[in-house]
Amino acid sequence: MATTIHIDPSIKAFIDKHGEETFPYECCGFLYGSDANGRNITVAKRVTNSKYGDQRRRFEITPQDYLEAERYAAMNDLDLLGIYHSHPNHPAIASVHDLAKAMPFFSYVIVSIMEGKAVDLKSWKLKDEERVFEEETVLISQLSTI
Questions:
Q1: What is the spatial distance between Cα 77 and Cα 94, in angstroms, rounded to a whole number?
Q2: Are 109 and 15 in contact (CB under 8 A)?
C-alpha cells in the first residue's frame, strides 16, 4: 500500500534551490517532521555530499552527519523521517544504487534537476520487509508546526 508524504511548500522550495545550487553535482540532506498523524515534513537540513569521486551520479552522507541528524531531531522534538537528494539531468526515479543504500522507515525524496532547473520531485520508501521501492504520494501543502 503506497503511503502519502506531506511536504510544506517552503521545504520543497528549499530542496529545489539546494539541487539547483549544487548542479551538476548531487545535493543531499535530512528531512524532519512528525509521523504521528501522517508523514509531515516541516524541516529540511542540508548536508555536505561526502562522496569521494563522481558526485554527478552519487551522494554519500557520513556516519557523523547521521549522528548529528539524530541529535538534532531529539533536541527539537522532531522525527528524522528521511533523506533528500538530487538527480542532475536525470528523472526523480529511485536508482538501483538508491535502493541498495536505502533504510527501512525513511522517505527518500528525489528532485530532478535538468540543466540547472528543478523540474520534478518524487518520494520513495521501501516496502515492508522487501528490498523494493514504492512511490509515495507527495502532497505539497502548508503544514502547521504546532
A1: 29
A2: yes
Domains of the chain, by residue range, sit at 4-139
* Fold that domain 4-139 belongs to in CATH: Cytidine Deaminase; domain 2 (3.40.140)
**H/E element holding 127?**
none
Kind of pairing between the strands at 4-7 and 117-126: unpaired
Task: Dig out the grid coordinates for 19 from the structure.
Answer: 539541487
Joined grid coordinates for residue 72: 538534532
User: Tell me: the pLDDT tens digits for 100-137?
Assistant: 888 888 999 999 999 999 999 999 998 866 677 777 78
Distance linking the first and last C-alpha atoms of the chain: 28
What is residue 31's DSSP assignment?
E
- Give pTM, 2 decimals: 0.91
Cross-strand partners of 11: none
